[in-house]
Write a structure and sequence with these properties.
Layout (H helix, E strand, L loop, with lengths): L1 H9 L12 H7 L1 E3 L6 H6 L1 H7 L4 E11 L2 E10 L7 H38 L4 E4 L5 E4 L1 H4 L6 E4 L2 E4 L2 H16 L10 E3 L7 E6 L14 E6 L9 H8 L3 H11 L4 H8 L3 H15 L4 H14 L1
Antiparallel strand pairs: 1-2, 2-3, 4-5, 4-10, 6-7, 8-9, 9-10
Helix pairs in contact: 8-9, 9-10, 9-11, 10-11
GO molecular function, one term: DNA binding
GO biological process, one term: regulation of DNA-templated transcription
Organism: Mesorhizobium prunaredense
Length: 307
């Protein structure tokens, strides 16, 4: 199936998939196949089946609905030309399977919300603003510190996290799309500045937590950490050197990262190469026992509050 999937994406069949039109049948019946839409003669002439599927020996498909609450998945079952289409009896069995999988998905969804709420409570305990998002980048819920940052400059509109600056909103959407498309359940993205009407921009750190986004059924697929540089200025270099035994150059880099700079921009301002900056950041991570920039920023801003 891997070569077929590569061609599906690379050659644009993903945008011309005739089976998208089966969604209404799937939603209503719990199971669907080509024959809800096409005849055998239609399939024999259709480019999707003859130009894309046929070279891989594929043709037949059945889709099984998995639904829980507002979540809706499709389990796609593929068959070769030789195997033939799904029979009416098999379709009835798959409809029964759809109902069973719906119950399983509902339980998984409830467990997932429990994990996500626990993570959100942990962020709240450290006064770290955090917003939970679903697989489409829609807001599930913010914690109390995040709610305090919402206002005219940053809002939740139609379940989306939106800045008054359109360019910043677009940048955040692109970052979230890249994150949510990543197969890495521990992925994180560089900070996205979100301008405000007053003060320096908020810094949005999109990331995924393996214990929260543990599989495709988990309701929470991403978290955005919000850092307010005005409320939490980075600690002085001397404090960082004393607390974490950072070198002077590592402390300067850590302060730049805490202020919202990416590694490349921070290295450029400090007059060192990108490779040097990246190696220094690895050392900072090791000494502070953090693993990504968002964790480092959260740690150092908490330190700022206590100084």
């Amino acid at each position: 199936m891997a070569p077929a999937l590569d061609t599906y994406v690379r050659d644009g069949w993903i945008d011309r998939d005739e089976r998208y039109r089966l969604i209404n049948f799937l939603d209503r019946k719990g199971v669907t196949s080509e024959f809800d839409l096409l005849t055998s003669d239609d399939i024999a002439k259709h480019p999707y089946y003859q130009e894309f599927l046929a070279p891989f020996g594929l043709r037949w498909c059945a889709a099984v609905k998995i639904a829980a609450g507002d979540d809706f998945w499709s389990l796609s079952l593929q068959r070769s030309i030789q195997q033939g289409p799904f029979t009416p009896d098999e379709m009835r069995q798959l409809a029964d399977l759809s109902r069973q999988l719906g119950s399983v998905a509902a339980v998984a969804r409830a467990i997932g919300f429990g994990r996500a709420d626990a993570a959100l409570d942990a962020f709240s305990a450290t006064e770290t603003p955090a917003v939970m998002l679903d697989r489409s980048g829609n807001v599930l819920r913010p914690n109390a510190p995040a709610e305090r940052l919402l206002g005219r400059g940053l809002q939740i509109t139609r379940r989306r996290l939106v800045s008054f600056d359109r360019t910043a909103t677009d940048a955040l959407d692109r970052s979230l799309k890249a994150l949510l498309c990543s197969p890495d359940t521990a992925a994180s993205m560089p900070p996205v500045p979100l301008p405000r009407l007053q003060g320096r921009p908020l810094l949005a750190y999109p990331l995924r937590l393996p214990k929260v986004s543990y599989n495709a059924l988990a309701p929470c697929q991403a978290i955005v950490i919000l850092i307010d540089p005005d409320a939490r200025p980075p600690p002085p270099e001397a404090v960082l050197q004393s607390c974490f035994r950072l070198t002077a150059s590592e402390a300067r880099l850590a302060r730049k990262i805490c202020s919202g700079h990416g590694v490349e921009a921070a290295a450029d301002e400090l007059g060192v190469s990108y490779e040097t900056g990246r190696n220094q950041l690895k050392s900072v991570f090791a000494k502070t026992q953090t693993h990504r920039q968002s964790e480092l920023v959260a740690l150092l801003t908490r330190l700022s509050n206590g100084r």
